[in-house]
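ugh ok fine here u go
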Amino acid sequence: MHRNMKITFLLFAMVAAFGLILAGPAWAKVEGDMITFGAAVSFTGKYSTNGKHTKNGYDLAVKRLNEMGGVEVAGKHYKIEVKYYDDESTPARAGQLADRLIKQDGIKFILGPYGSGPTKGMAPITEKYQVPMVEANGASRALFNKGYRYLFAVLTTSEQYLTASVDLLAEQYLAAGKDPQDAKIAVAVENDPFSMDIRAGILDDAQTHGMRVVIDDKLPKELTDMTVTLTKVKALKPDLLVVSGHSKGAALAVRQTAQMKVDVDMLAITHCEAADVKGKFGADAEYTLCATQWAPTMSYKDEWFGSAGDYAKRFEEEYGYVPPYQAAESSAAVLVYVNAIQRAGSFDKEKVRDAIAATDMETFYGRVDFDDTGKNIAKPMVLRQIQNGEYVPVAPSQFAAEKVIYPRPKWKDR
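structure:
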């Protein structure tokens, strides 16, 4: 009898434990007073520079939130931490790590990786397990036409990154009494989801203005040389050259246009700050137009960091460099997540997912308001020009601090 009772008790315990395992996935990884988020970020590979910015942005937000008491849920305060893995800058590895974070580590709140490719690798996994992912650095619009319910992006999608340069060129033509349809554009982009979206945005905007795209090139995979494209630029003399290839592409464009003395009235690129083109190339980077999601000079404010300028000061004190927008948007993603958890009043991932979807809030990075696809529809892109060694907002007009210097001075006149 005693033996039978013991067996019955063991069976009951096993069933109860199995029930807890089944129930567990509905809840966040919370142990004691600690909430653990998960993130696969590029610490190695071609995105490692921006992976560092992403991690620093996450970590600064976590530190600030913990200083302020952490996250309050049902009257109790919880601290935050992030469990990281290196996705090696590859989508496949990012997907594997998302699976590991959820299935092996038991983490149910995911912060996104750096880049559209790795985000594309993770999104099907988080969707499969119905785990929310708030991401800050996957801007490809292709991420948001798949019907994902658990993917949310605080940043502006990539097709909008450099369209302001086309609009600005049209404005310059009209101001000079010329027809924008006479303008010529050259495009050179990396063959990745982010850059191909930028290309699509440029082509669409050029068509709107009736401009001609005279060069439409894919940059070599290793991003070490764009001589072929620049030789065509010299021959065809476009008014605007648009280049997108993350940090390596930005550095390559500035370095080789200077080396080859390529005269083009406008040069517009992404990732200026992440590539530190101003610091690395000095005067050669002057007059470059730089797309940005955010700048320390913008007038955004929140209850956690204060103004955009306050955030920049705090970041620089912590890490020793001015924050690029990749870091700022990463911090904003953490703020959005925490705000949603507090509004949900629960660690149930479905309730948190619904709270994220209902987000409409102001942050130091800008307003965040998600549409039904998970895109942030409340924040514009900004175009800045390097003038006298400083990043100066020049478009759109509501953010312009100075007029654009157009055309760029020819190399022989510098």
